[in-house]
Amino acid sequence: MVRVLYVTGWCRSGTTLLGNLLGECGGVVHVGELRYLWTNGILGRGTNALCGCGLDVASCPLWKGVVARVAGDDPGWHAERAVRLQQAALRTRHTGRRLAEARGARAGHPAVSALAALYAAIAEESGARLIVDTGKFPAEAAALCGAPGVDARVLHVVRDPRATAESWRRAKEYIPAMGAARSTAYWTGFNLASERIARAFPRRCLRLRYEDFTADPRGSLARVMAHAGLDGDPPVGADGRADLGVNHTVTGNPDRLRRGAVRIREDDAWTRTQPAPARLVATALALPLLARYRYPLVPAAAHQGRRAPDTRSPRREGAA
Q1: CATH number for the 2-304 domain, one of 3.40.50.300, 3.40.50.150, 3.40.50.1170, 2.40.50.100?
Q2: pTM higher than 0.70, yes or no?
Q3: How many angstroms separate the CA atoms of 257 and 102, rounded?
């Protein structure tokens, strides 16, 4: 049985850093956004083909071994097939269908067994006892809850939609910019789909707010580790300082390539730099979910120059 911690939610929410921190635990491999292994790493059609180790994905010993296990002598053909299956069954719109399969209400899609086989190959090649995938596609998380040979846990990470919209306003190395309306529409859709998974499988799901993670990195990471079945001390100090080594992320936020000493703290510059029209758009589109995730209508730091951290524990999905 392959154990997977799948991170869902919307981008620019600290999931890359969280995944790399978990990757510092013994027996854990953080694969980044595994969905893009085939598009970026093998077919070379994406925005970046670098592994987190600094080599091209196709040249990295770990990924060469994984691809050989699942694709044999024709990785190009296999990659094309994998991409077709992803498009046919693992987009956010497919979350409901994958949940129905996971609950045994309908036959499984071939995309699910293909994904399970890929995780099995990663576990065999890396020797890891836990694979962390920060792909953030709710349909993949839903599929894993019923995938053969997979023991899945889901981590739903949420960040203030105004913050993610401001982060998307600027291009970041190989990732293009995105407007506030589009970013917040994705934020809403991805989070609502993630909630569907939590309602279907409450014991498999944990919700973590970015703001709570940055306010208490060590405590938050300890809770995530317990949820994923990991023991030992979190690889971050009480002061939020950590040391990052080499990882094998296939893609994700460019910060995944960072190594060495880091300090985890909230990035609240958005409260001072975000244009008022963009903030109004993001607030309006996300309004139905702001209170649910404990975000104020008007960010306090916009008036006070700083945000008071919310030190309450991250909630387990399905709780009151």
Answers
A1: 3.40.50.300
A2: yes
A3: 34
